[in-house]
Amino acid sequence: MDELHKFLFEGLPVRGMLVRLTDGWRESLARRETVGPFPPPVRALLGEMAAAATLMQANIKFNGSLILQVFGDGPVKLAVAEARSDLTFRATAKVVGEVPDSARLEAMLNVHGKGRCAITLDPQDRLPGQQPYQGVVPLHGDQREPLQQLSQVLEHYMLQSEQLDTRLVLAANDEVAAGLLIQRLPIQGENNLSGINVANEDLIGQSEGFNRIAHLAATLTAEELLTLDADTILRRLFWEEQVLRFEPLAPGFACSCSRPRVRAMLNGLGREEAESILAERGNIEIGCDFCGQQYHFDAVDVGELFTPGRDQPPASASLQ
Q1: 58 and 87 in contact (C-beta within 8 Å)?
Q2: In angstroms, how far is CA 139 from the centroid of its own chain?
Q3: Which residues are registered as beta bridge partners of 171?
């Protein structure tokens, strides 16, 4: 069962979340099997990204999609995970070369130091002229050292973009995708938990409470994160702390692709391009990279799409 647990530490300006994606993550992988599975390191990366995107979406309560992307110049051109406000998620990747079983983040996406991580917040109901917010960081640290783990990249992102100390532990296999997030609470005026009215950046690395909790969180191994239930993990890590827990939430896999969206994409290609594909192949078949769903369009479907008065000039479109 997919579950997400939020908690606070009494008397400390620290919050935490623990997510375990099981049924939804297995369904995501099973659907991908229909078009060919990803290499093991890519599956592990996507699982970590799905867990991380779900954690970040739950953390900010954003009404829209949080899209986590890593892209670069290695055999993995792009990996993306999306988590929506109802905590449904999906993930996929574009693999353009061989990925060794031992490949880590640098070998997959940052071979020549050009890898990047982007987090996009796309509002569900955009206002006219409103653009999604996006933040981008490189896949290396302050000393330009390559970062080998997604958790390190995201911790670096949170420190740069939000000036918030964050500790993140991620792990994934073909059965479970899981993550633990510990974060210093942002300052909100005079009544913050620490009782100090200073800017967030002035507290970076200075909170003894956060440093202690983060140290405890860092002792969690990938095996423990993948095999132990939430109650056991929190009890083992924080048995000396007063932990205030909230009712668990239920994330899950879901894809937002649909036949109308695919029709819109074909419409964006234009009549000439669509008819050219029809002439070459006899029909048009489009598969969703996220869930493996196949959409078929024959000559009649394409003819209905481009009825008089409905022709559209070529334009970019996507299934997202």
Answers
A1: yes
A2: 16
A3: 178
Q: What is the pLDDT along the chain (320 residues), one digit of tens a residue?
A: 899 999 999 989 899 999 999 999 999 999 888 778 899 999 999 999 999 999 999 988 778 899 999 999 999 999 999 999 999 999 999 999 999 999 999 999 999 888 999 999 988 887 777 788 888 999 988 888 888 999 999 999 988 877 788 999 999 999 999 999 999 887 554 333 334 433 454 555 567 889 999 999 999 999 999 999 999 999 999 999 999 999 999 999 998 878 888 888 787 777 788 778 788 887 888 778 887 788 888 778 877 777 754 444 443 334 34
User: Is residue 29 classed as helix, strand or coil in its secondary structure?
Assistant: helix
Residue 170's alpha-carbon distances to 19, 132, 156, 158, 220, in angstroms, are 10, 26, 15, 15, 10
> For the CA atoms of the chain, what is the radius of gyration?
22
Q: How far apart are CA 128 and CA 50, in angstroms?
A: 30
Q: Which residues have a Cβ under 8 Å from the Cβ of 147 and sit 6 or more positions away? A: 105, 106, 110, 139, 140, 141, 153, 156
